[in-house]
Every structure is written in C-alpha cells, then in structure tokens.
Amino acid sequence: MHAQVITLARYFGVALDTDPIDKEIREKIKEILIAKVSRTDTNEVESTENQINKIFKLWKNYSNLTDWGNMGGYDASNEECFLLYPFGKEPPERMKADVFKTLTSMRNVDVECQGDIISGYE
Predict the structure, then answer these.
(1) Contacts by residues 5-13 (CB-CB < 8 Å, ≥ 24 positions apart)
(2) pTM for the complete prediction?
(3) Closest CA to 52 of 91, 21, 96, 98
C-alpha cells in the first residue's frame, strides 16, 4: 500500500520525499485507492483508509529523509536516509525505524501455483 501511496504522490507533483503533501493531494490519493478497494471488497474500505492515513503520518514524521531511496539496495552513505528500501535487505541502523521496506519485483511470489493445460472445454 505504501508504494501505491508514494507513487501517486509523485504522480500528483510531490517532487521530493521531504516535500509536505498538501491536503488536496492526500485526498486525491485516498479517493483513488478507496474507490479501487470499494469495487473489490467493501469490508476493507475502513481498514484501507486507516492504513493510508498511517502511511501519511509516518511519512510526515520521518525527519531525516534525504532521498526517495535506491531500490538496488546499495549501502547508503552516512548522510543519506531513504523513504523506501528494498524488502529483504537490511537497512542501515539509522534508517530501520524510518523506512518503508518495499518489494522490487513480483518474481517467484506464486512459486506454489501449478497450472494445468486443458485439452478441451465443455
């Protein structure tokens, strides 16, 4: 969810991770994501809205940010503090509390699935 929120924030003009996100942009983002969730499962709307609000609150409180992040997972310099960090890689100690761990691909997420080819349809 955090990746969708951040992607939409950037799309709507938040140029830097340290830029404040005005109320109008926050409401646009919520509107888009809640509309998608409500078409899928109305029971998840309230939970999703709470999660979005939490993401905005955490982002606002991250005081040491210097960059969006590097999804290649290189080690940040001592001066850098990222908003996003690759899931599965350990961020530097100074970033652990203030980083969104983010999947970088969907490869191998469905390893357990096995498809069968059907020879006919009735």
Answers:
(1) 5/29, 5/33, 5/52, 5/55, 5/56, 6/59, 6/68, 6/83, 6/84, 6/100, 8/32, 8/33, 10/68
(2) 0.74
(3) 21
Please say whether the beta carbons of 65 and 82 come within 8 A. Answer: yes
Residues 63 and 81: beta-carbon distance below 8 Å = no
Name residue 31's beta-bridge partners: none
Alpha-carbon gap, residue 99 to 91, rounded angstroms = 8
Distances (CA, A) of 14 to 8, 29, 104: 9, 12, 21
pLDDT tens profile 49-84: 999 999 898 888 877 777 777 776 567 777 777 888
